[in-house]
Write a structure and sequence with these properties.
This protein is of the alpha/beta class. It contains eleven helices and nine strands. The chain is globular, with a radius of gyration of 16 Å. Keywords: ATP-binding, Kinase, Magnesium, Metal-binding, Nucleotide-binding, Thiamine biosynthesis, Transferase.
């Protein structure tokens, strides 16, 4: 399936309730891949935005009570309309408030995918007690933990790390695309979470689309680093590569292993 062509043909409306750090970067990344983003955080328009969206992305980075309320409203409305919802549970377990919000969302909202780093997925899977920082020190995850989380919440898990793990609880793939420079810029994971939105919005198979977007993002990072000298030049180069990316390039360079 040519995901990139489908996204650019459809220009899906992706409603993001995201954090202050990631907003501009995620919006530009979505535009670069061919999507149409909205980045509103107010509860007063959450249901309306969600009802018109092709996918909804909930990112808990700079969490507030208003954003938590907006996320729940948007998630429930999207579920009602059959619109895929993506969760990025940044710093899961880091504070009591954050833990409460994440638990409530997981209890009440059906997520099409959860995209998080290895440490955050480990917290959701009960293998780690707390995440003190969204910049995980856990380099990789036991694939069985990701599989457990996917089964528990009936979702696709994208656990990013040195090797990315993607699983729907039954099928599982490892992705070895990407570049270490992603660790040297803020909101790189947040951008991937947002990009999951347009991929799922055109997907026939949520798991396959999740594998595809993970590889595509990693490939864009690899190509960007060929043009960049450091984090300052990497960010615009990454946006350029998302804009220039095509399915043939993804098919040529993706490094996937089914297990």
């Amino acid at each position: 399936m040519n995901y990139i062509a489908k996204i650019r043909e459809k220009s899906p409306f992706i409603y993001n309730i995201t954090n202050e750090v990631a907003t501009n970067f995620a919006a530009n990344g979505l535009i670069a891949i061919g999507a149409s983003p909205a980045m509103s955080n107010t509860p007063k328009e959450a249901e309306e935005n969600a009802s018109h969206a092709d996918a909804v992305v909930l990112n808990l980075g700079t969490l507030t009570e208003d954003r938590a309320e907006a996320m729940l409203l948007a998630g429930l409305k999207a579920n009602e309309k059959g619109i895929p919802v993506i969760l990025d549970p940044i710093a899961a377990g880091g504070t009591k408030f954050r833990t409460k919000v994440i638990n409530e969302l997981l209890e009440k909202v059906k997520f099409a995918a959860i995209r998080a780093n290895a440490g955050e997925i480990s917290v959701l899977g009960g293998a780690l007690d707390i995440m003190k920082s969204p910049d995980s020190t856990v380099e990789s995850i036991d694939p069985k933990i990701a599989q457990t989380v996917a089964k528990e919440y009936d979702t696709v898990v994208i656990a990013t790390g040195k090797t990315d793990v993607i699983t729907d609880g039954t099928r599982m793939s490892l992705c070895n695309n990407g570049h270490t420079m992603l660790q040297n810029i803020t909101a790189s994971g947040c951008l991937l979470s947002s990009l999951v939105g347009p991929y799922l919005s055109v997907a026939e198979d949520l798991y396959e689309a999740s594998v595809e977007v993970t590889a595509a993002y990693g490939i864009a990072a690899e190509l960007a680093m060929k043009k960049a000298e450091g984090p300052g030049t990497f960010i615009p180069a990454l946006l350029d590569q998302l804009y220039l990316l095509d399915q043939e390039t993804v098919n040529t360079y993706k490094k996937l292993q089914e297990i």
